[in-house]
Amino acid sequence: MVSQSHEVPDDPAGRIVLVLDLDGVTDKAGLMDRCARDLALPEWFGRNWDALADCLADPALWPGGAAERGLLVIVRGWRAYAEKRPEEWQVAEEIFAEATDRGPGLFVTLGLGASSERGPDQPG
């Protein structure tokens, strides 16, 4: 997983930070494509919920140094997708929370997006 052309904030805890930008995503296929792109998932990524959970929870797929330092994934621009496809978004949140719980070192947080006026939220 390697961050793509996003301004990546520093993490005070020293973790590697990746940004998953969901701006413009309107369905599951778009979410999976964005995950593949922004998280630099492998070619074999199956673009389904189970494959996403497996990839997130596998430190071998994280950027260099993240297995030792930890990985913080910040999800931006998620509110429009969550409002348009609430059932899908609920599954995505469960996947993020499950991947975080499966092992040490991974944390997924929902960041404020340009379309958001509410405060930050946390999956799970």
Characterization of this structure:
With 124 residues, the protein is an alpha/beta fold. Helix content is 37%, strand content 14%. It has five helices and three strands; from the N terminus they run E-H-H-H-E-H-H-E. The protein has helices at 28-38, 49-56, 66-69, 79-84, 86-102, and strands at residues 16-21, 71-76, 106-110. The protein has a three-stranded parallel β-sheet with strand order 1-2-3. The protein is globular and about 35 Å long. The model is unreliable at 2-6 and 115-124 (pLDDT under 50).
Count every helix, treating DSSP H or I runs of 4 or more residues as helices: 5
**Radius of gyration, in angstroms, nearest whole number:** 13 Å
Give the H and E element order: EHHHEHHE
Task: Compute the average pLDDT.
Answer: 86
Structural class: alpha/beta
Residue ranges: pLDDT <50 for 5 or more in a row? 2-6, 115-124
Query: N-to-C terminal Cα separation, in Å?
Result: 23 Å
Instruction: Please report the total strand number as a whole number.
Output: 3
Going across the biggest sheet, name each strand in turn: 1-2-3
